[in-house]
Structures are given as structure tokens and as C-alpha cells.
Amino acid sequence: MSYSNQATWPTLPRTERGRPIVLGGDPKGKNFLYTNGHYVVIRDIQNPASCDIYAEHSTTTTVAKYSPSGFYICSADISGKIRIWDTVNKEHVLKNEFQPFIGNIKDLAWSNDNQRIVVVGEGRERFGHVINAETGTSVGEIGGHSGVINSVDFRPTRPMRILTGSEDNMANIYEGPPFKYKTSLQNHTKYVQSVRYSPDGKLFATGGFDGKIFIYNADTYELIGELGPPAHKGGVYAVSWSPDGSQLLSASGDKSSKIWDVATRQAVSTFVMGTDVLDQQVSCLWQGEHLLTVGLSGFISYLDKNNPSKPLRVLKGHNKPITAMAVSEDRKKIYTGSHDGFVTRWSVPSGDQDRVKGQCHTSQVQDMCTTSNCVYTCGFDDTFRKIDTSGDEYAMWTVSGESQPRGISTDGRLVAVAGHKDITIIEGNSKKIVLPISYEASCVSLHPEGSHVAVGSCSDNKVHAYAVTPSELDERATIEHRAAITDVKYSPRGDLLAACDGNRMIRLYSVQDSYAPAHDFDWCFHTAKVNCLSWSPNSLFLASGSLDTSIIIWSVENPSKHLILKKAHPQSQITKIAWIDNNTVVSTGQDSNVKLWDIKF
């Protein structure tokens, strides 16, 4: 057996209210990049479904920027470390790793000769530092600020200058090398959140939480004028220059973005992105002919200069850990639910995505299952909900659980929900059976014929198998494991039940033989807790995902053979796994990424 990664549908940028994020752009105009968790995500700007993910940071990443040559990327994290790695090789070979200061790095910039890097942020002893990209030696101090530095930029032309924006409401200029404080600009009345030089280096712009944007002469540091005024009714989170330097793109907390004519200092276009708090715009990037903005939701919008009322496209997905997944019966759609209660629909194989509309869960989506025309979901808001797959919208159907639901399963007619302290069987739109239980359920699986339901427990470490009758659940078998049961799944044929636990063990049971073990040995090749299981449609293979970041494909006909997909989601546990067909597996992780795998037998 062998495998290959068919596609990766990446996480969105991780956002936080009141905090700008930084988008980086390839100097050749081909890619853009951003960070989430331990990862740097590189996406093709014309075909964003094509992406690459760098996963070598040991702590949360904060910002990444291409070098002017385009051959290297410098990425930074909350510990104050930066890693410089190449963009040419698929392995992204590490060139250098330095620690300019200890603390959260909020922004960084390269000098135009690729030789120097300036980093700024929340350092314990300093808020910024300039180092040599080859040796890590100091080439200047970033002093003169009394608050955290939020933004920094290198002048793209000589003489070299560094521009910073800080929470002390000032923008500072540093001359060098070696770089030393020159002067402060004090026109803003609130935090300065974004500072950027124009491409020709003759001007620079500063944007702040006072909603104002100022344009300055880069040689004399004199104020040329203010855009607006004011530019926005809410705080300005980011500014980005057009390639020719004649216009400026701004993103604001007032839920809008604007294009400004720098010469007249007037708005050319205004993009109203919505009315919800998640429509606040926290970043922007003008990359060639593409204008990108990022909302607080994490959605990436491609703006249309010719039609400000509607974006050209919007990249959606998740930026919080994915906790639930299901594949539609026609195998053309994948549904994923996340920690924040949202559900996203993905199209196979294009990767096109959209967020499911309607009243979603108000907290974590715990599990989901599909029938021919709908998706059933359960969440930590103690409700079961239904999505109409024809319009990918929540139906006006909500059932409150007796206790917090932990898993949901269906045979197409019945729906079984395992709650914290009960098992519920739903038929049609109402509860048919509610069985109180003395143990704490963790997962559930309904037999394909609806005749049995298996419930895994995380309190007594047992699998409880029940026969489903018209009026009650009759317990037929109790199977003991050494650790908490994490998942149970009946095979599509209905002859086997697979169960996994926190002690790395996976075991198959024969349904016809009163749930006796199907083999005289267990599958224990994972190195940490097994989180999830999924059967191939032909019932010949079982896939498992684990805390150890790996996926294993097991053969039922040849139990001694298996295929290990090591580090399927680097630095992230596998949260859910499913088969699209007998040769394609889809997996989700704590990293918010969705990955498709080709399996060859």
C-alpha cells in the first residue's frame, strides 16, 4: 500500500478582536501568506485551493514575510524567535533561526538588499531590533517608543530608513545603518496600527485606531495630508499601497475597506463588507491586480474595483479547530464543524467552499452524520440540528437534548444521539426513545440496518451494545477496554464493529457472534490515543486518526498489514477521518486544515 496527498484545504488566518493581522505577499505577485497556530500558510493568489503549509515553529506564529528576492521567507512567533527558510525546495530548508528579543513579535520587514531584518512587538526589554539576516548580529536599536510596537516597514529604496507604529500613538523614523532613532510623528491620537512605505519609497502612510490615515514625505518626514478626514469611522487596522503607488487600500473596524487616491486624498471606492461584528476588516493586501482583505471571521475577500458592492470571491473555511466531519451520501460534499459552532461545506474535488447558512450551534459542533438529503449535527449547546443539503442551510428543526450530546449517528431512517447521561433515538422529527444511562457516553454508532446501536463510554471504559426495538433499547453486550472509549463504528456491511480507546488500541468485534473479538490480537501501532475511526465503503479497510498526528489504514482481510501516514497533520492531532470512496480518505485536524489522501492498495 502507498499514499499521496491529493489536496489540502487550508485554515483561514487566526483572528482576534481588536488585533490587526499581517498578510505577506510574494514579490513576484504569485502567492500570499498568513499565519495560524504553529503554521505559515502559503496560497496561490489566483488558485487559492493550491497551498503549502510550513509547520516547523514550536510555538504560535504571528507574522511571515517574503524577502525582496522571493527566495526566502522569514516567519516569527510569540516567543520572539524568527526562522528564515527557503521557498525553492518543497522541504523549505531552514537557513537561520534567531531570537532578536523575548516576547511576541507583531510585525517584521526585510531591507531591500535582503541583508537585514527588523522585528517589532512586545519584547520584555525592547520593543524592536534590527539584525543581519545572515549572522543575526545587531545592526541597530529600535528605541524611542514607550509602548508596544505594532507595525514596521523598511524603506524599499536608499537611503535606508525604518518606520514604526506604536501603542504610544507615535510613528518613529530610524536612520542607518546602523539604525538609530531620528524623529517621532505625533499626529495620531490613538494606537498606530499600520505603517507602510510606497513602492517607490517617496511616501509613507500611517493608519491608527483613531480612524485616521496620514501621508508623509519619506525624505523630509513632513506631513503631506490626511485622507478623509477621517478616513474611517472605526479604527484603521491595515493599509497597503497599489503597485504604482498612486492609490492606497485601507481596512477598518467599521466593517469597510476603501481605495484612496493619494494625490487628491479622496476615497475612490468604498467596500461595505457587512453589518455583523465578524465583518470588521482586520487586514488588507494589494498584490498586483488582486485586492485582498481579511474579516474578523477569517474570511478572505477578493475586492472588485469595478463593483464595490460584491467581492469577486470569498475564501471561507475554519480558523478554529475542526471537531466534526461527515461526507454526503453522494460523496460530492464534505461537511466540517468547528470549535466556534460554524459548519463549512466543501465540494469534492474542486475544494470550493461555503459556510452553512441559518441558525448554527452557539458552541462547539461535537459530531455530525448524513442522510440522503440532510446533515444532522449535535453541539455543546445541548441541541441537535438539521442541515438541508439542497441549499446548505439549517432547517427550522432543533431538538434539545436531555444532556450534553457527545456523538450522533444515523442509518438513514433513525438518528441515535449519545448524551452525557442518556441515549436518544429520533425518528422523523421527534424523539422516539430516551434511555438514561449510568455511565458517561463519548461516542455512538447506529447499525446500517438500524437494528443495533453501540455506545462508547469514557467513564467505565466499555462499549455498550443495544438492540433497537420499536419502544426501547435492550442491552445485549458489554465490551471492556483498558482505557476510555474514543470512537465506535459499525462497518457498512454491518458484520463488524470497530472500537478504539485512549490506550492506543483498536479492536474489531463480530456482530453476528454476539460481539466476540473478530481477531485474536489487537491493532496497537499508534503511539498515542486513537481519536477517530472510519470504514471504507466496501468494509475492507479501516482508517484511524490519532493524537500522534498520524493516520493508519488497516486491512480487514489481511490484519497484519497496515499503511501509516506519518505526520499527516504535523504538530496537530487528527480529530476526524472519513472515506470519500474506496481509495480516498479525508482527514481534519486541530490545525483547522482539511486534507485529502489517495490510497493505493
TrEMBL record:
Q: Which GO terms describe its biological process?
A: actin filament depolymerization; locomotion; sarcomere organization
Taxon lineage: Eukaryota, Metazoa, Ecdysozoa, Arthropoda, Chelicerata
| GO molecular-function terms, A-Z | actin filament binding
The subcellular location is: Cytoplasm
Q: What is the name of the gene encoding this protein?
A: LOC100897981
Family, per the entry?
A: Belongs to the WD repeat AIP1 family.
> Positions of the WD repeats?
54-95, 142-175, 185-226, 229-270, 315-356, 526-558, 581-601
Is the Flavoprotein keyword given for this protein?
no
Q: What is this protein called?
A: Actin-interacting protein 1
The record's keywords, sorted A to Z, are: Actin-binding, Cytoplasm, Repeat, WD repeat
CC annotations in GO = cortical actin cytoskeleton
Q: Does the keyword Cytoplasm apply?
A: yes
Q: Which Pfam families match?
A: WD40 (PF00400)
From what superkingdom does this record's organism come? Eukaryota
Q: Which SMART domains match?
A: WD40
